[in-house]
Amino acid sequence: MMQTWKYRGFAAASCLLLLLWAVMLWQGAGALGELEEQELQLHRLQEEQAALERLQAEHPDVEKYQMEVEKELKHVGALLPDDMETAVFLQEMKAAADRTGMVLCELAPEEAAEENGLLAMPVRVTLQGDYFSLVRFLRVVQNGSRLMQVAAMDVASKGDFLDCRLRFKIFSEKL
User: Fold this and answer.
1) Is 0.85 surpassed by the pTM of this model?
2) How many Å apart are CA 30 and CA 64, to the nearest integer?
3) CA dist 169 to 73, 96, 110, 112, 151, Å?
4) Predicted confidence (pLDDT) at residue 175 exceeds the cutoff of 60
5) How does residue 132 score in pLDDT terms, banded at 50, 70 and 90?
């Protein structure tokens, strides 16, 4: 009988130890999961810190960088104004033609219409000049202060000069 109690005690102690061992393994697995999650978070934070350090190295003067960003935002805002501002655009086209040596023969805005959620106004432009003046004009217009699209372009030779018929589309946000 004493022998049976020893075996039962041994079996109970073994079961208890086995249960404790299983609990420790289960807790260890949970701790490993938390450790992996923390390592992932640490890796993300290190990447973010590296990106911030690169940004700081590229822009050591924060105030100057902030001014550049504000200037760029202002420029982007001017590309797509709230209103059509047709008169300003027409003046810019005239100035571009004068600056590049092109003769402006016609500058005629047409009726604006909605296009992809924006207001689009076609503008017909007829110019005369030599090839290099036309190239300069197109570069000036491309680098202008306004978002626009060349919808059509027809160039014909008239002796030493080119007769150019362009159709631009200018855009604004208000419908």
Assistant:
1) no
2) 49
3) 22, 16, 10, 9, 6
4) no
5) very high
